Amino acid sequence: MSTYALLFDQSRCIGCGACEQACQSEHDQRPHKPDKLDHESFTWVEDLGNDQYARHLCMSCENPTCVSVCPVGALEKNPLGPVTWDAKKCIGCRYCMMACPFEIPKYEWHSPNPRVRKCDMCVHRVTKGLPTACASICPTGATTFGTREAMLAEAHRRLKADPQRYTGEVYGEKEAGGTGVLMLLSKPASESDLPDNVPEHDMPHLTWTVLEKLPQIIPVWGVFLGGMYWLGNRKVEVAAHERRQIQEGEDNHD
Amino acid sequence: MTERKLPRPHFWATVFTLLMILLAVVLFRRYTGGIGAISNLNDSMPWGLWIGFDLLCGVALGAGGFTVTAVVYIFHLEDYKPMARPAVLTAFLGYLMVIAALLVDLGRPWNIWHPLIFWNPHSVMFEVGWCVMLYTTVLFLEFLPLVFERLGYNRQVHFMHKYLTPGLVIAGVLLSTMHQSSLGTLYVIVPEKLHPLWYSPILPILFFVSAITLGLAMTNVESFLSFRAFGKRLEAPLLRGIGRATAVMLLLYLVIRIEDLLVHGTLPLAFRFDQASWFFLAEIIIGGVVPMLLLFQKRVRRNPLALTGTQFLVVLGIMFNRMNVAVTAFQLGTGAGYRPHWMEFVVSMGMIAIGVFLFSLAARYLPVFEEGPLTNARPVDPFVELNRHSG
Fold it and tell me: pTM higher than 0.90 for the full model?
């Protein structure tokens, strides 16, 4: 089955912040107006001026960078779409934060038992067949929830129907190899806090091309080293043998 | 008449004690108030001084261990045998300090062993974790004969040398090949976040070659420091040989590095004379080209003081590279704001101090050097000694 996705339409967002409130209450967080993503703000509605807004949240990549870099598999891609974090496994290396091309995971820097914090696409709701808290509360339909196929088709339908409204591409269709949050932007990403330099391919293959070669390189390197040891050892033994013979020869003369 | 003698505290012992007290206070804050209580690390700069210095530099500085043991036991250049034990000891203590620093840097250090049971073979960090654990074990086993010899377990020492050493050395080279290069691979996944003068898909190759170079240079520096501190004999001819090898490795590294920039068309960025360009030029010219040219000079190699000074420049140059990758290039690429907090420096300095302290203990009580344990550490006038060697 297809994964679920969120479609955010910038032209429909009125910046009411209902998604922020719903998200905070859904995750038992202190109600507040965020000014960036942080350890207690999983989504943030950025005011771009002129009554235009950008929404920030975990992009729930199809092939997530964070999942690939986590040494202990604490981050997982749920088959339904959400990317989740497991407190029991995490060692706190923060490689996920380093690697995420959207700079989504945030940290509890002032906790002795810190957690990686980020939007989990309301996994507890999605597994029950419910839409995310932000999508259910959005009063204007700026954020909608459905299968990724349906959301992508809807995005392209809107693009075609009213091309003047948008920048012309679906943000997240190709970024980082495709994401589970699709955005129709009326302002280019570079005019908001959204990264505009995310490669249009998935990131995990970059390190995998290196790692997958190790099973080929290491045996060859091992044979070479072992061989050098053995060949050189033979020379050392022969030299020792010759020294002994000379010694014995001298002894016989006495 | 009674002699009145005030206790004369040794300068370094005092510095060490004060640093340890400070470290204890800092660590208390760390484990009660979190990483944020002692560092300026933040959401846009999740890795800083500790990863750059303690992990990347620390592991690279330990590369002398696998390099020298490979030279002696695999390639049978047995003249270099006196270098092997100090190099193994440096590497062993170095890796222990890396792990100790990780216990500060990791958010949940009590889970540090988790890669043993929770596997993710797609993660570079998973591979680094395994290799560092295994290689530290190898280093421990390579270090063990020093203890056995001291205790008079001669049969065990003989057994280890005959049956275990070759296998351990080969395993050590293989594990080091993997994790030294993988520390570079860690950054291969952030092409859009690392400044193009430092990002490369062949970072693993660059890290591996420069680690060997650094390992060789560090062997010289450490040998000279042991000579200064413990009155160890200075093996001038061996240092000359290491100097030649370092020159060749450095040339190889610089060729790969520059070629890589040419292939990606990023070399012109080096001549924009902005911050990135100055950092790059300083790293490559002062920390690379200059010491390489000096090491190719016979006159430099024949003077132990000049040779060691040049090798120290190599050490600084490659450490500067690691810091640039971990901090400067990342900041230039992402615009993240970060200046290390002074308490971050206390942790890093503290780790070095503990390492040096343990090394000097080992030098005193274990047969690290060919001369045996140097129990009577006597102050040496380096210039008298040096003239004797260079004459």
Answer: yes
